[in-house]
Amino acid sequence: MTVGAASAFRLEPLAAAQVDDLVVVEKESFPSPWTRRQILSELDKDYARFESAVHSETGNAVGYCGYWKVESEAQLANLAVHPAWRRRGVGRRLLESAMADARRRGCDRMTLEVRAGAVAALSLYRSLGFRPTGERPRYYEGREAAVLMETRL
Ligand SMILES: CC(C)(COP(=O)(O)OP(=O)(O)OC[C@H]1O[C@@H](n2cnc3c(N)ncnc32)[C@H](O)[C@@H]1OP(=O)(O)O)[C@@H](O)C(=O)NCCC(=O)NCCS
C-alpha cells in the first residue's frame, strides 16, 4: 500500500464515534463550520446518506461526504477533507461513492451549491461532470456568492 494514497483510507457510514474528528475537519474547512449537533443530526434523517473516510492505521476520520435524497434528486449536503490529508484522492473517492450510491437508490441527478471561491471543490466537481446552473450572489455570510451545479447520474 502506498503511504498517503487514497488506498490508505476506507469509506464507512457516518457514525457518532467519528464526530469529534469531523468537528475538527469542519473547523479547518469552512468559515461557518457545521457543529457537532448538526453533524449528528444527519444520522437521524432517513433521506440523508453520509460516509466518512477513515485512516486505515489510526482509525481517525479525515473527511466526509453526504447527500440528501429528495425524490429523484440527490442534493450534495457536505464534502470536506482535513487539510493535512488533501490531494490524495480522498475527496474524489468520497464524492464518487456518494454519486454511485445515489444512482443505485434511483436518483437521476445530483445538485449542489458551492462557494464561488472554493477553487479545489469547483475543480473536483467539474472533473466529475458537474456544470453550473446558476448563482446566488452574497449567499455565504452575506458576502461570497454560491455557484449552483448539477450533473446527471
Ligand atoms: C474540495 C475538497 C473536499 C477536495 O478534497 P481532496 O481530498 O483534496 O480532493 P482530491 O485529492 O480527491 O482531488 C480531487 C480533485 O480536486 C481538485 N483539487 C483538489 N485540490 C485542489 C487545489 N488545491 N487546487 C485545484 N484543484 C484541486 C482537482 O481537480 C483534483 O483532481 P486531481 O488530483 O486529479 O488534479 C477539499 O479541498 C476540501 O475539503 N475543501 C474545503 C471544503 C470545501 O470547499 N468543500 C466543498 C463544499 S461544497
Topology:
Layout: E1 9-13, H1 19-29, H2 36-41, E2 48-55, E3 61-70, E4 73-81, H3 90-104, E5 109-115, H4 119-127, E6 131-140, E7 144-152
Parallel strand pairs: 4-5
Antiparallel strand pairs: 1-2, 2-3, 3-4, 5-7, 6-7
Strand order of the largest sheet: 1-2-3-4-5-7-6
How many extended strands?
7
Q: What structural class should be given to the helix and strand makeup? A: alpha+beta
Q: Tell me the number of helical segments per DSSP (H or I, 4 or more residues long).
A: 4
Please tell me the CATH architecture of the domain at 6-111 by its name: 3-Layer(aba) Sandwich
The distinct bound ligands, ions and cofactors come out as: coenzyme A
CATH superfamily of the domain at 6-111: Gcn5-related N-acetyltransferase (GNAT)
Percentage of β-strand residues: 35-45%
Oligomer category: single chain
Q: Using the CA coordinates, give the radius of gyration.
A: 15 Å
Sheet having the most strands: 7 strands, mixed
* Helical residues, percent: 25-40%
N-to-C series of helices and strands: EHHEEEHEHEE
Tell me the span between the first and last alpha carbons: 31 Å
Q: Which fold name is given in CATH as the topology of the domain at 6-111? A: Aminopeptidase
- Shape, per Cα inertia axes: globular
| CATH uppermost class of the domain at 6-111 | Alpha Beta
Mean pLDDT metric? 95
pLDDT < 50 stretches? none
